[in-house]
Amino acid sequence: MADSYKNKKVISIGIVSELTGLSLRQIRYYEERKLIFPERTERGTRKYSFADVETLVDIANKREEGVQTFEIRQELKKQKGQSRDELKKMIRGQINSQFHLRK
User: Fold this and answer.
1) Which residues belong to any copy of the HTH merR-type domain (predicted)?
2) Using an 8 Å Cβ cutoff, are 48 and 20 in contact?
3) Which helix or strand (DSSP H or E) is residue 69 part of?
4) Domains in the chain, please, with CATH?
5) What residues pair up with 6 in beta bridges, in sequence order?
6) Of 26, 35, 37, 87, which sits most exposed with the smallest number of CB within 10 A?
7) Nearest alpha-carbon partner for 36 in 18, 58, 15, 19
8) What angle do CA 32, 34, 40 make, to 5 degrees?
9) Which residue has the higher pLDDT, 81 or 73?
10) 11/52 Cα distance (integer angstroms)
11) Which DSSP symbol is given to 43?
12) Distance between CA atoms of residues 22 and 16, nearest Å
C-alpha cells in the first residue's frame, strides 16, 4: 500500500517545482533528456508521482556535483534493471515457497 500512493501520477509540474526548488524549464529539460517520465492528461498537462519528485531531487543533486545527464540516465537504467531482477527473485522465492520447491 505504501508504495502505491508513491507511484500515482497526480502532482502538477507547478507543485513539483515548489517541492523540488527546480524551475519548470529544468523539469521539462530532464523530461527531454529521458530522465523522468510524467504522464499526460487528455489536455497535455504533465502529472508526476512522489517517486518522480524524489528522482528529480536526486537528479538535481547529481547535477550540482557535476554529473552529466547521460551518466544519470545510464545509472537510472541500471537501477531499473536491478529492481526488475530483485522483483523476479522475490516472485520466484514466493512461488518456490508456495509449492515447496527448491532451487
Assistant:
1) 10-78
2) no
3) helix 69-98
4) 5-102 (1.10.1660.10)
5) none
6) 87
7) 58
8) 70
9) 73
10) 9
11) T
12) 8
